[in-house]
Structures are given as C-alpha cells and as structure tokens.
Amino acid sequence: MGREEQIISERMRKLEELRKQGVNPYPPKFEVKDTTSDLQRKFSKIRKEEKTKSNAVIAGRLMTLRDLGKIVFAVLNDGCGKIQIILQEKETPEKIREFFKKFIDTGDFIGVEGVIIKTKTGELSVLVKNLTLLTKSILPLPEKWHGLKDNEERLRKRYLDILMNQEVKEMFIRKSKFWNTIRSFLIDKGFIEVETPVLENEAGGATATPFKTHLDALDLDVYLRISMGELWQKKLMVAGFPKTFEIGRQFRNEGTDAEHLQDYTQMEFYWAYANYIDGMNLVKEMYRKIAKEIYKTTKFTRGNFTLDLSKEWKIIDYSTEIKKRTEIDIFSASEQEIKAKIDQLNEKFLPSDPKPRLIDLLWKYCRRKIAGPAFLNGQPVEVSPLAKRDPKDPHRVEQFQIILAGSEVGNGYSELNDPIDQEYRFAEQRKLKDEGHHEAHSHDESFIEALKHGMPPTCGFGVSERLFAFLEGKPIRETVIFPLMKPRET
C-alpha cells in the first residue's frame, strides 16, 4: 500500500469511528462571527506575547499542522486569508486537544472559538478554547512546497491549484474586477445591460464555425451563439434603445491556442447615433481605466513588445500595412498571387480558402509585428460583412480593431444599417457557405426585416477575455477558471 493509500485508509477509519461516537463529520451549519482578514487588520498592532480579552469565532480549512506535544500550531484558511491557531496544554481544554490530535488532519474544515493573542515571534493567533469538525477530508492535499506541478493536472484540478497557489487565486479575483470594471464603466456612460439568446436558429454576428445541437421540444436543430448577441442587440437599436451591452459566454467550434478557446466570455456594446470614431475614443478610455483600476499601471511588456496605453494610439491602415510588409496590393492581387506570398511567408492555408480568408491570413502575419497600442482601420468589405462602407472608398469599411503586442484584442465598427447592402452581403456569404466555407456568415432574414424597419446609425464593439489574458501576460487557457479538458483515458 502506497503512502497516499495509507492516508486515505486512516482517514476512513477516523470517519467511521466519529460516526460510531455519534459525531456528525459533515454538520449543516456553523455560526461564523469573524474572518481572518478582519482579525489581521483589527489586531495587527497588538504587542508580541500579548493575550487580549477579545474572543474570535472563525472557520476554514486546516492547511498545515505542527504537533509539538504540549502545543499544536496550525494554519487556518477561511478564503479571506490565513491565521494561526494554537492548541496549548492548560490553555485549551484537554478534551478539545485530545479530539484534535485523534481526529483532525490537514485539509479538514473546522470551526474554532478562542482568544486573540500574538506569539513571541509576532504571529497573530487564535488560542483555541473550543473546536467543531465541519468537514472531514478523505483525500490529502498536495504537499505544501511541491503542489501540483503537472500543468494538465493543475487545470484538471483547478480547485486544488487555487487552494495551494495564492497567485492563481488572486488572478481570478482580478478577472472578476476586470469584468466589473467594464460593466460599471459602460453603465456610468448610460448603457443598459441586456441578455440575448444563447440558442439560435442561425448562428450570426461573426465569422466562425458554430456548435450545433438539437432542441427536442420543438424537434429543431439550433446553434450555440458565436457572438454576444450582435444581431439581437442591433434589433434593440431598431426597438429604440440608444445604448446596450451584454457580457456572457459564446461558443466557437474551432481550434485552441494561446489566444483562442471554444467557449469564452465576451462583451459587446451597441451605441446609437455614434460611428467608429466615437467607438475608438470610448474604447481607448475604457482600456486605460481597466489598466489603472486593476493593475495600477498603463505600461506592459509582453514578449518582445513594450507598450503604454496612456500614450498615443497609432492608426494603421489595413491595406497599406499589408503592402508595406508583403508587397501585396490586396485590392488588385489575384488569389494565386496572394497564395504564393502566403506560402513564401511560411504561413498555412487551405487550397480551398476564398480570397477574404487569404487576405486575413496576410494581415495576421503583419499584425504579429505591431507593438501598439494601435487602431487598425480600412478593412476591405469582403472581410467585414456587417460593417458600414467608408463613404470615401466603398471598397473599405468603417472598422477599428485594437492591436496590442501583435494581437487583436477588440473589434468594432460603424454598423451597416442599409438593408439592401446587408442583404447583398449576406447573399455573398451564403455563396461561400454553399461552397463549403463553414465560417461564412448566415443569411438571417429576420435581421434584414428588422433593418428594413429602420436602424439608426450605430457603433458596435466587442472584446473577449483575450484582453484579460494579455494584461495578465498568460495564455488564455491559464486564465480560465475551469477550462474544458479532454476526459482521462480509461
């Protein structure tokens, strides 16, 4: 029998004995009166070896335990912080000490009542007077100094990764603040938060491969959304809402890498009577606020790039940048010329890829070389079927993408509200879909009908948790609290 098996066997024995003695190892409730963080703050200035008259009632998981015979030192983690607890001969009732030594292990949840003291080493502690077992753990925790080293095991058992690694826990606290900062920023600007359908008859609003499922109640094939309600929020513009936004999960049946996942959180806003220039100004303000609120800086170094969000954001023209870096004029070059250049650049493409897809591959090659912060403008109509044409050049659209350290971390545009043009572009996308290009946009007739009722000039913008991953300097999978994992092979 291995060491872990011995530990489990011993804990199961303790569990059985507790039940025989009439002790419930999983009671339903414990009346907590204090948190470790409050105690640390309130009593931080008491002197060494001082024993206060203050009583504390706390609960949490036992993380470490040192039994020195007449005195036991242990560390309790209540999710708000950690504090030392002490069971000492002549101070802690004998029956409590005996119970602790006989039945309590690291990993157990316990509730304790005791006196606040500070040890001679300056450690704020609770001198235990009473103790309640709240949850008996059966499996041991990872060793304190080694933890979970295998990366797949860390992600698969994220609850242990968070428990044993304070930095990971703090990252997810920052992630909550990240989305709440975006939410409060938009609400302060007069936007209202909405909820749109996750299941759709047609997966619209983006260029991506959707997940397909079946709704038994209606005997209907449906799709998980690939955008954050883009077409639905535009219908809300038709309905007369001037500013809306949604934060939620969206799904794309595509590959994963350092910047892409199959399901992830996205925010999209829609702003009536505004255009892409207004959107650029608002988004720049929002990104700077996120950086200052959460990271207390606007300066970031990622890979070979160093950038400062407080500095000027350059404006880069799509076709000009591609021509400068690849010598390809995307408006006049043939598909064969573009494919030859992509091949020369050692980028991968499929022989069946249409021209818009090939142009996008050229751009992504160029993008990886741009530090930013920068706005990308002037995208061709072919790669942006939902954006309004540039009145100065009908081959381009009024779009903006945010470029940070070679990555795209946000996309917006002046929304196309001409129903005739939109119907034509949907028809072009349908041709691509019929040719086998599954990422092409669907032809949403209900959206066209809504546009024919009239949608005001509108700016739309979306950003995913890829921005948070960038700010953290980590692959996006590392910043997901419970990433999708392939089942273990049996």
What does this structure look like?
The mean pLDDT is 92. The protein is built from 14 helices and 20 strands. Helix 5 (158-164) packs across helix 6 (166-188) and helix 12 runs antiparallel to helix 13 (445-453). It has 490 residues and is an alpha+beta fold. The protein is elongated, with a radius of gyration of 29 Å. It has an eight-stranded mixed β-sheet, with helices on both faces. A five-stranded mixed beta barrel has the order 1-2-3-5-4. Strands 7-9-8 form a three-stranded antiparallel β-sheet, with no helix packed on it. The chain folds into two domains: 3-135, Beta Barrel (OB fold (Dihydrolipoamide Acetyltransferase, E2P)); 164-313 and 372-479, Bira Bifunctional Protein, Domain 2 (BirA Bifunctional Protein, domain 2, 2-Layer Sandwich). It has helices spanning 3-20, 36-42, 94-103, 151-156, 158-164, 166-188, 230-239, 276-295, 318-326, 335-344, 355-367, 419-434, 445-453, 466-472; strands spanning 51-67, 71-77, 82-88, 109-118, 124-135, 192-193, 199-200, 212-215, 220-224, 243-251, 263-272, 299-302, 305-308, 314-317, 374-377, 389-390, 393-397, 399-404, 407-414, 458-464.
Tally the helices.
Answer: 14
Beta-strand percentage range: 25-35%
Proportion of helical residues: 25-40%
Overall tally of structural domains: 2
Strand order of the largest sheet: 6-10-11-20-19-18-15-14
Name of the CATH first level of the largest domain: Alpha Beta
Uncertain ranges: none
* pLDDT averaged over residues: 92
The CATH superfamily of the largest domain bears the name Bira Bifunctional Protein, Domain 2
Structural class: alpha+beta
Terminal CA distance reads 22 Å
Gyration radius, in Å: 29 Å
